[in-house]
Amino acid sequence: MTSMLELNDIHTYYGNIHALKGISLNVEKGEIVTLIGANGAGKTTTLRSITAMNRPRQGSIILDGEDMGAYKPHEVVYKGVAMVPEGRGIFARLTVSENLDLGAYSRQDQNIGPDLDRVFQVFPRLKERNKQVAGTLSGGEQQMLAIGRALMAHPRLLLLDEPSMGLAPVLVETIFDTIVQINKEGTTILLVEQNALMALSIAHRGYVLQTGRIVMSDTAENLKQNPTVQKAYLGVA
Questions:
Q1: Is 0.90 surpassed by the pTM of this model?
Q2: Domains plus CATH for the chain?
Q3: Least enclosed by CB within 10 Å: which of 81, 109, 130, 147?
């Protein structure tokens, strides 16, 4: 496999707060890689660093061999990286259709029809709700819309920040099944997720973050069997 994304010794700050303290990780093309850790560990900050929303003060972010350090957030999207933010971030007053159209704003081509078809194939509920105002959707439907909107950018790399947050268990399974499906269709995925067990059940590899540092990395299966991970994140006594 070929590395699509590499983070090398990333240090990111919020003012004087040193949030990421030398993060290094890689995501190979075609993988699902998950970041797990407690609240405040630095998971979201890692995604925000990749997307240039919080530019690191030190270290390098390499996408397909290209240093992304000089790019602005919208330029990162042009390079094929789409993010589904924590809390979904949909445009509540716009319709489902308008939200999806906005997801394709960065596209150089105008042929978004096949991608719209793909989103409706993955999320048939969105097709049914196409003309509905997004703010009136259920939490699960809003999460589907947030993922669908990101897919409209036709990303090579999809960043997912807490996709299961606030969802009923049955919907969590649906969302995770969909993540697997999207990955099988060729999209590489970096997943931040509080539900470590679900994340490790679909990921190929994982990294454990603790107070801004990576303290462990392994295959997802090995992390699931690791006693420290089980005790800290999987609820195993």
A1: yes
A2: 1-80+188-237 (3.40.50.300)
A3: 109
